[in-house]
Design brief:
With 593 residues, the protein is of the alpha/beta class. It contains 16 helices and 23 strands. The protein has two domains: 280 residues, FAD/NAD(P)-binding domain, CATH 3.50.50.60; 225 residues, 2-Layer Sandwich (Cholesterol Oxidase, domain 2), CATH 3.30.410. InterPro entries: FAD/NAD-bd_sf, GMC_OxRdtase, GMC_OxRdtase_N, GMC_OxRtase_C.
């Protein structure tokens, strides 16, 4: 039976979780394990766990731009990209973006997570989070009857993987079958000199050089701390049911009947109710709208925001926590903190599909000169850039990710995520993408008014830092080497001039200037935004402390991707799950203290 708003507000809760998404349902499941604790979850979207477009692993692209599934945010015009607006799909359903993402499970590097500690945190380092990666997952190696070639997954060390967690992890099989690209890509990587490749999509490379003779010919499990090399990414797919494994299916559905857990969907939280107590404020509950009516829900212990990179800072500002300058004339500022909504970072990528190489003899010198010229405007930004720069020049860290896709790409309309991974032109195409692993450009998310239904202004400031442009341009030039490889060139159709036929959105790049201009025209989000409620010391730009508590409050926490202060390589869903598992233990420990 679907819960009504009246039934929900009739209860009193120990914990009120705002956002039943990727992180929120992890907290709800773990906190409600204690029968003496009452947990309430408010989610703006509906429960669509059984919807075929969401449960079917290959159905998710059809959810984009549809309001019943997708918030369909848009960025402000991006100055670094000629004023282009980018579409930002985010899951507006129970389970959040874990219901509409690409289901790739990757791993942050040890350096990535230890950077959190170097910046002043004590909760999210490599040693802190590694046990929680194992806690959230159950890894299924390919079986004897699997269509996935077992040799392409042998880099996985099962002893480093989880064996009884709620999220099911496997390698692709029906209905996400192995394609011709799966057999081609390993050969391509070997010919380029990268470590032996295990495909579906990702190759992490460093230095963007054409050869990497000093690396092993066989990559090791990224759970050992480094993802340098060519790896097949396992997927968040249950191999038994052939369905998506998400926060809704894995954390909520098995626990939905608990008396200690109540979930209300179709409920948009409009503000956190704060009460001043001495110098700090305490969260008494939240206000939310449902069916055109306003309601109030109260809590005894804590309110936890799990709205993600956009909704969590938006709700803090709507509740009076943020910059005086931003809130002036919109909302009464109760807790002044100019860091709310700042430090927005996102991976950005560029596709190409083909020819003509340029040597990279001065790659290192060029990047060092750019970093010297653009060191950052604040002490914290300079510290973060220094950490990111150290990883660029670290021989064990990947500078970019390369994805090979057996399909076309259309970058003519970056506002439409539906159009990006496909093409309307005659012919079959293959695409190769380069995505940043750490992003030097930094933007923000802020409310435009006191109206909670008005989308905030989202400005990632794509390519505002020249190092992002340079890295992607170098990757584009690196791609030209592909057409020299027999294994790759044999798959390409040739024009009358004897050159490979380019996709309409692609370009022949002969110089680095060509590549830089191309990057500024065709790059787009990879859907990995972080940072708008950063876990940092307040004086360094923090919004929450190492225990997830919002500065200036006694019992308001944030737990989602917005707390990550610096970017990590790869898809971030796994890090959200691990940090939410860790967050649940932080909250349990606080309750017992």
């Amino acid at each position: 039976m679907k819960l009504t708003p009246e039934q929900f507000v009739a209860q009193s809760y120990d914990y009120l979780i705002v956002g039943g998404g990727t992180a929120g349902l992890v907290l709800a499941a773990r906190l409600s394990e204690d029968e003496d604790v009452t947990v309430g979850v408010l989610e703006a979207g509906e429960d669509r766990t059984d919807d075929l477009l969401l449960s079917m692993p290959a159905g998710f692209p059809q959810t984009y731009e549809k309001p019943e599934y997708d918030w369909y945010y848009k960025t402000t015009p991006q100055e670094g990209m000629g004023g282009q607006v980018h579409g930002w799909p985010r899951g507006k359903v129970l389970g959040g973006s874990s219901m509409i993402n690409y289901q790739l499970l990757s791993m942050a590097s040890k350096e990535d997570l230890d950077n959190f500690v170097r910046l002043g945190n004590t909760s999210l380092g490599w040693d802190d989070l590694l046990p929680y990666y194992r806690k959230f997952e159950t890894y299924h190696p390919p079986g004897e009857d699997s269509e996935w070639p077992r040799e392409l997954s042998e880099y996985i060390d099962p002893s480093l993987r989880g064996s009884n967690g709620p999220i099911q992890i496997s390698f692709p099989g029906a209905p996400m079958s192995v394609t011709w690209m799966n057999s081609l890509w390993p050969k391509v990587c070997l010919e380029l000199g990268h470590p032996s490749a295990l495909i579906l999509v990702t190759v992490c490379i460093r230095g963007l050089s054409t050869r990497s003779s000093n690396v092993s010919t066989r990559p090791h499990d990224p759970r050992r701390g480094s993802s340098l090399g060519a790896f097949n990414q396992p997927l968040m797919v249950d191999p038994k049911t052939k369905t998506r494994s998400s926060s809704a299916s894995a954390y909520y559905r098995p626990n939905a009947s608990r008396k200690s857990l109540l979930v209300l969907t179709g409920a948009l939280v409009t503000k956190v109710q704060l009460k001043q107590s001495f110098e700090d404020f305490s969260a008494q509950g939240v206000e939310f709208s449902s069916g055109g009516k306003l309601y109030s829900a109260t809590c005894n212990r804590e309110v936890v925001l799990c709205g993600g990179v956009i909704n969590s800072p938006q709700l803090l500002e709507l509740s009076g926590i943020g910059s005086h300058q931003i809130l002036d004339g919109k909302v009464e500022c109760l807790i002044g903190n100019p860091n709310v909504g700042e430090n927005l970072r996102d991976h950005i990528g560029t596709p190409n599909g083909w020819p003509n190489p340029e040597l990279f003899a001065k790659v290192t010198d060029n990047l060092k000169e750019l970093l010297k010229a653009y060191p950052g405007d604040t002490p914290t930004e300079r510290e973060i850039i220094e950490l990111e720069a150290r990883q660029i020049f670290n021989k064990t860290e990947a500078d970019v990710q390369i994805y090979g896709v057996p399909g076309g790409c259309d970058t003519s309309n970056l506002e439409s995520p539906l159009s990006l991974f496909g093409n309307q032109d005659t012919g079959n195409y293959m695409s190769v993408y380069a995505w940043t692993t750490r992003t030097f450009s930094r933007g923000n998310v802020h409310i435009k008014s006191a109206d909670p239904t008005e989308y905030p202004a989202i400005d990632p400031k794509y390519l505002s830092h020249p190092v992002d442009v340079e890295l992607l341009a170098l990757a584009m030039m690196h791609f030209q080497e592909l057409t020299k490889l027999d294994s790759f060139a044999s798959k390409l159709a040739l024009g009358t001039d004897g050159k490979p036929i380019l996709m309409p959105c692609a370009a022949e790049l002969n110089t680095m200037d060509d590549a830089r201009k191309y990057v500024r025209k065709t790059s787009f989000t990879t859907y990995h935004p972080i940072g708008t409620c950063s876990m940092l010391p307040k004086e360094k730009g923090g919004v929450v402390d190492s225990n997830l508590l919002v500065y200036g409050t006694t019992n308001l926490r944030v737990c989602d991707a917005s707390i990550f202060p610096i970017h990590v390589q790869g898809n971030i869903c796994s890090l959200v799950w691990a940090s939410a598992e860790k967050g649940a233990d932080i909250m349990k420990a606080a309750r017992k203290a």
